[in-house]
Design goal:
There is one protein chain. This protein is an alpha+beta fold. The chain has two domains: 219 residues, no CATH class; 63 residues. The chain is built from eleven helices and five strands; from the N terminus they run H-H-H-H-H-H-H-H-H-H-E-E-E-E-E-H. A five-stranded mixed β-barrel has the order 1-2-3-5-4. A hairpin with a 2-residue loop joins strand 4 and strand 5. Helix 1 crosses helix 2, helix 2 crosses helix 11 and helix 3 runs antiparallel to helix 4.
Length: 304
């Protein structure tokens, strides 16, 4: 996926054009929603490494699909002062996020735009994360966030305690967001998304074509590197540890003959995404602090 700064800049600009007086806090929230499952996955595997990584990957893969991400956006909109308007803004940005993701070259990866009717990954593959276009969009995104930060933290009253009807709607939508992926796990499994079933069952590997997106690889010898700490990637010698995308064929259960490879910049995408996530959290936190301060200083009408 493009880094989060690209999403914030492109989606913030397009939303500002499409929706009059749009609250950028909700634009940014919608831009983050499809990434939430992947953030949680990384945290879970770090804190609880005994969790089955394949089952977890299928779960978050479903949860990051367009239809399930829209459930999350709808649930959050129930907490807004203007739920219908916020639902439209967040839904637009959830969809736009996934479309932007599909534009990036991601071997063995992509997005689910048509789930549950089709679990084939959508990837139009137009540019790499380190391409000049992506670098320009990243810098533009950073500039957009900085220039509009004051507007974002001062804009409106975005949250409101929901009434009973909206509270029920929030519970239903949030519950569906968490539970529906469990019902649909067989979809991505049968489609062998990310070649997970090939990787999960060693006996299926020999002779199978496989793709990896941005995986860790360390030097092994003059002819190969060690991919994911497990697979010997022949035809991809490295001088130092790197993050690589690979297309290849399994020669045996633990050896891959590399057909094509791309070495990624070691930190550009991750740092830009972390900065974007930090910016979104800071904007919401500053708004919260300012709104609480204004509430304390606002005169009490009953005292007049």
């Amino acid at each position: 996926m493009p880094n989060l700064l690209v999403h914030l800049g492109v989606q913030g600009a397009l939303s500002s054009v499409a929706v009059r007086d749009v609250d950028l806090k909700w634009v940014y929230a919608g831009a983050v929603v499809p990434d939430v499952p992947w953030i949680v996955q990384r945290a879970v595997l770090t804190l609880a490494p005994e969790v089955d990584p394949y089952a977890l990957r299928y779960y978050v893969d479903v949860q990051a699909s367009l239809i399930v991400s829209l459930l999350c956006a709808g649930a959050l909109a129930m907490l807004a002062a203007a739920p219908r308007r916020v639902a439209v803004v967040m839904g637009f940005n959830v969809g736009l996020h996934l479309i932007l993701d599909a534009l990036q070259i991601k071997w063995g990866n992509g997005v689910h735009l048509l789930a549950p009717f089709s679990w084939e990954l959508v990837n139009w593959g137009m540019f790499w994360p380190e391409s000049p276009l992506n670098v320009v969009l990243t810098l533009g995104g950073l500039l957009f966030v900085i220039l509009t930060a004051r507007r974002a933290v001062r804009r409106g009253v975005p949250l409101q305690k929901p009434d009973r009807r909206r509270a029920v709607a929030f519970g239903v939508l949030a519950g569906a967001y968490l539970l529906l992926p469990l019902w649909w796990l067989d979809g991505p499994r049968e489609a062998n998304v990310h070649d997970l079933e090939t990787l999960r069952e060693p006996g299926r590997r020999p002779g199978q074509y496989v793709e990896f997106d941005r995986k860790s690889c360390v030097p092994l010898d003059a002819e190969a590197c060690l991919l994911l700490g497990t697979f010997r990637a022949e035809g991809l010698p490295l001088e130092r540890e790197a993050r690589v995308s690979v297309r290849g064929v399994f020669v045996d259960t633990e050896t891959i003959r590399v057909l094509e490879a791309h070495v990624h910049h070691p930190w550009f995408r991750d740092v830009a995404s972390y900065l974007g996530l930090l910016a979104v959290m800071l904007i919401w936190m500053v708004w919260f602090v300012l709104s609480r301060r204004e509430a304390r200083t606002r005169p009490d009408p009953s005292a007049v």
